[in-house]
Amino acid sequence: MTKHHKIFAGDRLRRLREQRGTTQAELAGGLGISAGYLSQMEGDQRPITRRLLMRLSRLLGIEPNYFAADDDLRLASELRESASDPLFGSAISADEASAAVRVAPDIAQRFLHLYRGYLALEEEHRSLQTRVAQNDVGAASRFPYDEVRDWVQSKRNYFDALDRAAERLAEARNFHPENRSEDFIKYLRDTYGIRTGQAREDLGKGMIWRLDNNAKTLFLSEDAPVESRIFWVAHVIGLLEQRDSIERQIKQARLSNEEAASLARVALANYFAGALVMPYETFLATARDVRYDIERLQRRFVTSFEQVCHRLSTLQRRSSPGIPFYFLKIDIAGNVLKRSSATRFQFARFGGPCPLWNVHQSFSHPGRILVQLAATPDGTRYLSVARTVSHSAGSYLSRPRAVAVGLGCEIAYASETVYSKGLDLDDLDSTDPIGPGCRACERKDCRHRALPPIGHPLDVGTIERGVVPYQIDTKIPRTGRIR
């Protein structure tokens, strides 16, 4: 039997209706349903049926996938990328990938699982060849980062049990930003008998903290800023306080190996730390009060810019959700260090992010917040905020790590943020055309391409030449060839 996912997109439907200046009664009349039925759909008490989806598309002039589940969109995007590997011959189209997910989502998931296994074996084979050539036998990569990242993304970067546990602990112990450092240190000492001290000697190259179980001491790098030290103490509290909960969630994740499980353990302890430093309801209320001003939230909660951005991307508690944000962290070479999305935004699995994205430009303006209006190929528009978050390396002889973070939300939520001030959110001409990455991007006229898009034939033999040395999906046959 064909499996269909129910579409619950009440908030998206309500916002679209309000943008069009239409009442519930008017839209319900156009759809041929009662206003009460529409109200239940907007409240996610009823799903949007396929029949109503098509009516909405015609009535409001939108693409049918506008209300598609975010997980389905991400799955279709990844399926299209993976199934277009030259290994399989010809590429598949976006419509074919979407149809496959719609008709057989479990089969699509299993195909991707199989394909990831193939890539892991290929990587292991190459690594083993290199190691044998160097006479150095060791374990090869199994892509644990990708596996854990996919798992976190499947949870929309929100872990309710840990979030609520951190919130309860913060309330019970009356932790406040102004004396949180001392409170965390005291709690760790009194509850678990672990002292905290700054390591004057080198912890080891690249090390920032070390828990010495024999000495019952948590050593922290003395070069780290106070907000980092607070977070590390909270991380250790999470490992100790929520050990059973963390292990239970890792077991449920069914990760493929212990290396992935270890990374997941770190990710969950980090999640708890962020929730303890920035308790959900208090942080969300403050974020709304300051219109999601990241710098003001930094000061209120004594945190870093990156910590605030990441926390904002996790505010997806079903009973009181915040703005759905995507979050990205990259280095100066464009390598993706972290990424998650509570939005429909699609990250490419292969290759770097789109060069038109302002997160890249932030390296040319260190410390400055850049704001951008951008649109993806499917027509969804975003407000994107980016800034470098590099810290001092602590020594002239150390090389500081140059990284930047990006935070974004769909344009429908932009007016709720301080970053929309002075922007004409309806001006399409001021919107930059970005994409998930060159291989997965559908744009055929982008002069910033580094790689051709998958699934389209190339024409490199014409008498014309643009900035990109090929044309994509040429519809009209060309006969004027250079002989």
UniProtKB/TrEMBL annotation:
The keyword Lipid metabolism does not apply. Gene3D superfamilies: lambda repressor-like DNA-binding domains. GO terms for cellular component: cytosol. GO terms for molecular function: DNA binding; DNA-binding transcription factor activity. InterPro entries: Cro/C1-type_HTH, HTH_RamB, IrrE_HExxH, Lambda_DNA-bd_dom_sf, ScfR_C, TransReg_Diox_bact_type. Residues 13-67 form the HTH cro/C1-type domain. Keywords: DNA-binding, Transcription, Transcription regulation. It holds the Pfam family ScfRs. It comes from the Bacteria. Belongs to the short-chain fatty acyl-CoA assimilation regulator (ScfR) family. This is XRE family transcriptional regulator. It comes from Bradyrhizobium neotropicale.
